[in-house]
Write a structure and sequence with these properties.
mainly alpha; 270 residues; Vacuolar protein sorting-associated protein 51 homolog; 8 helices; single chain; protein transport
């Protein structure tokens, strides 16, 4: 839904109220029409596979979330804050509940789309760019939480970020295993091709040292990539979230286990 369409929807609603349209019917119709237009935005975003993560998130913020915000604030002003003599005493309360459901249904659809995009991108691009995009989205959702009193957004981007950290750790874990396996194969091949028994010991020590240093640098690179999630300049803080704490501890344990297996294997060779 283009922003001007959302604006038009709000203006039409105001005009119909002035023409004595029944507020309850108009409230339902407004959310029904808005839901259809917002669905069109979701479909449009699903096709943006060629855009990078920042462009994808910016498009969602400038389109879907801006339109959703306009609809929510317009509905709130028209049906939640005003008293209508022809409606029941609980009309405002019912309207607020209905708006909360509408808001969270659409936020959930959008964040599910973002989650799917993150899941497809993680491990194949720059983690810093991905998190910069999610940081922008997190800031936007924080702002949306303050748009209207009584509205509550149930889902947030932190769960997506935590899931991304887990997925990236799994990708790095596989990369470490593959790298170690390839390196061991190279060591074995080098030993088999050695011609002199006198050189075997020296060759083995040199090969193991090179293997050790190679894996050490690989692990350092993995840790550096994962530490991006803990930068203090992000608007989110996964360590402040219970799931985030478990995530950080799980990643630490996983990497330590992988590294310990590597060290034990080196000892066996030595």
């Amino acid at each position: 839904m283009a922003s001007n369409s959302a604006q038009s929807l709000s203006e039409i609603g105001e005009l119909l109220l002035q023409l004595d349209e029944k507020p309850a019917d108009l409230a339902n119709e407004m959310l029904t029409c808005a839901a259809k237009r917002l669905h069109e935005q979701i479909v449009l975003l699903q096709d943006q596979t060629e855009r990078d993560m920042i462009e994808f998130v910016d498009m969602g913020i400038e389109g879907f979330l801006n339109d959703l915000t306009l609809v929510v604030t317009s509905y709130f002003d028209m049906f939640v804050t005003k008293i209508y003599d022809k409606e029941s005493d609980d009309f405002q309360e019912r309207s607020l509940r209905q708006l909360n459901v509408f808001l969270n249904q659409n936020i959930d659809k959008y964040l599910t789309l973002v989650h799917d995009r993150v899941e497809s991108d993680i491990g194949f691009g720059d983690t810093q760019i991905l998190l910069r995009a999610l940081d922008r989205l997190h800031r936007r959702l924080l702002a949306m939480r303050n748009i209207c009193r009584g509205l509550e957004i149930q889902r947030n981007t932190v769960d997506i970020i935590i899931a991304a950290a887990h997925q990236l750790c799994e990708a790095h874990s596989k990369s470490l295993k593959d790298h170690f396996s390839d390196s061991l194969s190279s060591v074995r091949l080098a030993l088999v091709s050695a011609k002199s028994d006198n050189n075997n010991g020296a060759n083995l020590n040199e090969l193991i040292t090179n293997l050790y240093m190679s894996m050490l640098e690989k692990v350092k690179g993995v840790l550096q990539d994962l530490l991006v999630f803990l930068q203090t300049d992000w608007s989110f803080n996964i360590k402040a979230d219970y799931k985030g704490v478990l995530c950080v501890e799980g990643i630490r344990e996983s990497l330590l286990i992988e590294y310990q297996i590597f060290q034990d294997s080196c000892v066996i060779f030595l």
